[in-house]
Amino acid sequence: MHGLVAVAPLPPVPRHDLLTYRVPEPLRERVRPGVRVRVPLGRQTRTGVVAAFAGALPPGELRSIVDVLDVDPFLPADLLELCRWTARYYLASLAEVIATIVPASVPRPAEERALRLVRRLSADEQAALARRAPARARAYHALAAAPGAELTVAAARAAGVGAAQLGALVAAGLAEPVVRARTAAAAPRAAPRPALTRAQDAAVSAIAQALAGEQHVSFLLHGITGSGKTEVFLAAAEAALATDRDVILLVPEIALTHQLLERVRGRFGGEVAVLHSGLGPRERWSEWRRILSGRARVVVGARSAVFAPVRRPGLVVVDEEHDAAYKQEEGLRYNARDLAVVRARLAGAVAVLASATPSAESYQAALDARHRLLTLPERPTAHPLPAVEVVDLRVRAHDRTGPRLVSEDLRRALEANLGAGRQTLVFLNRRGFAVYLQCAGCGAALDCPLCSVTLTWHRAAGALICHHCRHTRRPPAACPGCGAGALEAFGVGTEQIEAALRACYPLAVVDRLDRDAAQRPGAQRRILRDWRAGTTDILVGTQMVSKGHDVPGVTLVAVLLADLSLNVPDFRAAERTFQLLVQVAGRAGRGDAPGRVVVQTFRPEHPSMVAAARHDYAGFMARELDRRRTLGYPPFGRLINLRLDGRDGAAVERAARELAGRMRRRARDLGLDEASVVGPAPPPLERVRGRWRWQILLRSRDVRALRALAGTARGELPSAPRAPVRLVIDVDPYSML
Prior knowledge:
Blueprint: E1 4-10, E2 19-22, E3 36-41, E4 44-53, E5 67-68, H1 77-89, H2 94-101, E6 111-117, H3 123-132, H4 134-145, E7 150-152, H5 153-158, H6 163-171, E8 175-181, H7 198-213, E9 217-223, H8 229-242, E10 246-250, H9 254-268, E11 272-275, H10 281-293, E12 298-301, E13 313-319, H11 336-347, E14 350-355, H12 360-367, E15 372-376, E16 387-392, H13 408-419, E17 423-427, E18 436-438, E19 456-458, E20 463-465, E21 472-473, E22 488-490, H14 494-504, E23 510-513, H15 515-518, H16 523-533, E24 538-541, E25 554-559, H17 573-585, E26 596-601, H18 607-613, H19 617-631, E27 638-646, H20 649-669, E28 677-681, E29 687-688, E30 691-700, H21 703-713, E31 726-731
Parallel strand pairs: 9-14, 9-15, 10-12, 10-13, 11-12, 13-14, 16-26, 17-24, 17-25, 23-24, 25-26
Antiparallel strand pairs: 1-2, 1-4, 3-4, 3-5, 6-7, 6-8, 18-22, 19-20, 20-21, 27-30, 27-31, 28-30, 29-30
Helix pairs in contact: 1-2, 1-11, 3-4, 4-6, 7-8, 17-18, 20-21
């Protein structure tokens, strides 16, 4: 028994990490690392998580914890160890990491009301009740026929029995109300898994062998689009469960969570839990408790599910491992892909990173033998990868704006595909109806008052919207600058393409999937359901439609402006463009009919375009890695971004210049050259949500020295959101905007 504990308060205390408390004698048997406790903090009482037993007595008078909230640890020991690793690597406090996982208030488990039959009526009594009160008699029969003579209110409503009739049964002494924890619906186990191809079987065997050894092994599963990677890790999940170990399956988008969940529940039934940000608090923590208790042994989720409290991690899978959505860009800036590998290593488990276009970091790790490379070079279907045709938009200047962005080549392909009764995917990675509204007289455009961007015109909503801070306004009747007529729309987005295709093909069913369309309740599931069912002829979408969706009826994929992602000041721009093109092209030809891809671009000679048209991952990545090696960019060097922001632009700039000077002096002390500190400079997006931003980039091949350099910056400026000038440290940054 221990008398002192280190507690992570929820939420964390600015400029503090763990706080030490005494443990009163009556509570000592109940206190252990990972349990939640109530602790005094100032004049308040807060919830906290015991991170460890404290050895040394700190100076000053200590206060005592008030209560222990859990019988068993809310954070298991291996998950606490992952939190410690995360705090060290991402230069954050342990309290901040724990607060990312556990909120200050965890709702009670979701409950459902039910009725239990306490007295059965004789046949004569039932007949009398039917004559006197037919509706009450129907309620009685529904309750008596229910399993265990217990009927939930939801089930009664579905059977046509109202609350008044149920209340009458209680008043008559025939039933009593009960409240029970709501459990997830159990799906029946499906038939055995389908036959695997030779390559799939070899991959499953390698993973199963590693699972049997109960030692950490990490795999990179590189399979072309449509090669059956999902079936490989579902079979691997079966092997993990057979060894009495648990499984975590990560996907980058919530939309993909729903799709994978159907397949996983069909295989593993009620043992499946789901964790992602789209769940309500009560639902999320009910799932957490199911996982913690061992009733759910397979967890499907997005980024945050890497912290799922499974009892014995055996297999951790990261599907579409290359996706930037695994990098958290707010609060604790962790990469779930990297943490998945670390979690598997700490637990002696197997990690599988799966992608048709692996990231440069993961592919180089496989070349260096830090991951074992597994390949799936063919599709299980009869058809190979789709043919890709590149349309050079430079010779079609009239096609650059508006509906004419659909070139004649693409128009003919669209009409032929519609005539054959096939489905078409039209991809444009730009939301809205137009990029901006501009005055043709004076040239003024409407900017966001809080961010350094123009407002995007959304015609369906009748509003101008900032995609960074969600500032919204109605378009003015006249130019606010010169008073001339109404502003004109420039540029093109998915909303305009959808409208143009509806006008051109009035008999076709045209739909759209982007973040705006998905915001409507239930819209995302409905759009994808109709798409998979084949009732949608043409689907217009952004990168939300580019990955993970397996729709056999899609035989044509059209990419309208393939080079949009190249026009970004980011060393990963070519890699992201290649990945995006290969992923979206891979949606075609997954069924019985061959696929076709039409790519429209102003830069057809760019290496990412040439390689994507040939489906040449190895050739593209070899060239990309050579370029990165020469420049010292990841995976051959490491980056840490120091971002300062505040509402006073001059104060932010002054603080950034002073910090950069101190960083250069510290770099020399650590033996780093001057090129290891780049900046300070404002990012391309200088202001977001009313806060001005400057950044300093730290780069080096010496990881330890780089981390030491970044560590000295932690004490220079506060990280509290309301600080006049705030410092955010982003280790392994993905976005430099």
